[in-house]
Amino acid sequence: MRVPFFDYPAHFRDHEEEYVRTFREVMGRGAFILQRELEEFERQLAEFVGVKHAIGVADGTNAMILGLRALGIGHGDEVLFPSHTFVATYGAIEFAGAHGVACDVGPDGLLDPADVEKRITPRTRAIMVVQLNGLVADMDALSALARRHGLHLCEDSCQALGATHADRSAGTFGAFGAFSFYPAKTLGCFGDGGVLVTNDDRLAALVREMRDHGRRPDGTGLAWTIGTNARLDNLQAAILLVKLRHLPEAIERRRQIAERYVSGIADLPGIEFPWQHHAGSAPRFNTFQNFEILVDQRDTVRQRLLELGVQTAVQWGGTPVHRMPCYRRADELPNVDRYFSRCLMLPMNHFMTDEQVDYVVTAFRRAFEECRSAA
Ligand SMILES: *Cc1c(COP(=O)(O)O)cnc(C)c1O
């Protein structure tokens, strides 16, 4: 058997007839830009997340750039973020004109509030929390910290649609949350897409203008602010409306797969499941955007798995943001470095069959034991 890390064509095949019907219907009306499917998707997504406003944008990165700019964060400001994230988190901060300061993570792989506090300076304006792999960080501690220091709390929740912390959704804890609809995300469209969510009326109105050349959606064509073109295509919104209906099943399936993985490999010595290390007491709902574990001899286990037909991944090529050539500062982040020396992602998407999951478990156990006896 061969198990791919992600099956992109399956993404289309899954509800193919519905997509083709949607395409015909929307294209037949010539409804390309800022049309009713986008409005309807924004309404339904806001309802799903439990937030007042959702504004469809070009992608998750633009959601963060526009959100930061709408908060007036830019030149001379510092924004704290975890180095265990996609480089887009840092890129968005720098692209908005501010400086990103990378922070260390806790044993759960998410932003460590104690390390964040150490890096606050008079220039710090915001904390960009990253809700990674379908998991929400310790928002009780981070919210309290932001409040104590008068900082904006922002969320890169691109990987955490549907995840909660004490029954509150990722993306709704602070000034704004950013979600991505990149195809490999749990709610993925057929290209790029994103959304900014917020409960702040003023921020919502400003982002709505900024995504459309600074124009107010009043039909006058008058631009009231400096904007850009960062709209979510109406066709992608129409596709996302179909996918959103199936999202609860997709999340449920991911949780089943995760459970099957955990019960299949948890007894192996030294395996760690980062989400089991959560410091806070509030219950968290993990949507398993990714199934990332920590394992010794990661590279040899991974090579052996590949020979057995199982494709795995080491996130972002194994390089955290503070080790990227584009990172402008020199920061020591020992927990992030340790995390990246052991992290491994097993195939995880809701199109996988039980047979595939069981095959991955069998192959993993074999690869693990072989590497251990060779060591
Ligand atoms: C996917 C992702 C992004 C960027 O989203 P795009 O829609 O590709 O711009 C940002 N941060 C994280 C953590 C992501 O996983």
Question: Care to describe what's here?
Answer:
The protein is of the alpha/beta class and 375 residues long. 40% of the residues lie in helices and 14% in strands. The chain is built from 13 helices and twelve strands. The strands form three sheets. It has a seven-stranded mixed sheet with strand order 1-9-8-5-4-2-3, with helices on both faces. The protein has a three-stranded antiparallel sheet with strand order 7-6-10, with no helix packed on it. Strand 4, helix 7 and strand 5 (152-156) form a beta-alpha-beta unit. It binds pyridoxal-5'-phosphate (PLP). Pyridoxal-5'-phosphate is lined by residues 59-61, 85-86, 88-89, 130, 132, 156, 158-159, 180, 182, 192, 194.
The number of E-state strands comes to: 12
* Averaged pLDDT: 96
Sketch the topology as an H/E string, one letter per element: HHHEHEHEHEHEEEEEHHHEEHHEH
Helix content: 40-55%
Question: Can you list the ligands bound to this structure?
Answer: pyridoxal-5'-phosphate
Shape call: globular
Q: What is the end-to-end distance?
A: 27 Å
Strand order of the largest sheet: 1-9-8-5-4-2-3
Helix/sheet category: alpha/beta
Annotation field: number of helices: 13
Profile the largest sheet.
7 strands, mixed
List low-confidence stretches: none
Oligomeric description of these chains: single chain
